[in-house]
Amino acid sequence: MADGPGLRISIYCAGCLHACKGCHNPQSWDIANGNWMTIDEIMDIIVKDEFSNVSFSGGDPFYQVEAFTELARRIKTETKKTIWCWTGFLLEEIQADERLSKLLPYLDVLVDGPFILEQRDTHLHFRGSPNQRIIYLTPKEDDVIPGTVDIIPFR
Question: Which of 45, 68, 76, 78 lies in disulfide reach of 61, CB 3.0 to 4.6 Å?
Fold first, then answer.
């Protein structure tokens, strides 16, 4: 599985309660795992790489939504990079939650829904099971990706 199209800086976070059976990164479920980094440290890495866009993965970034919202805001303010984000939550759950929905305006693409091992499909683009949706939250990128879902922008 790739973390989005083209060159990308992938930011993996710790913390996930979805605990999807067959998860490719179960060590990220524990919020105590990983390395602590400040938003400034992460931004230094992002800004120095002039070619790569950004992907948020995990764990689940929505379990650290305040920090990821601030990071995404800085990325959008200080760079021209796109942001893809993977989550086990559904878009509708995120939109219905005032706290979680604060991250959405900064994302370009959301890959939503839990991974379902029994539906695993290695031929899918950028997701592990067909219930997961690739949702454009901003105007489409140049790449046409099979399985994407068009929605009215959240902004």
Answer: 68
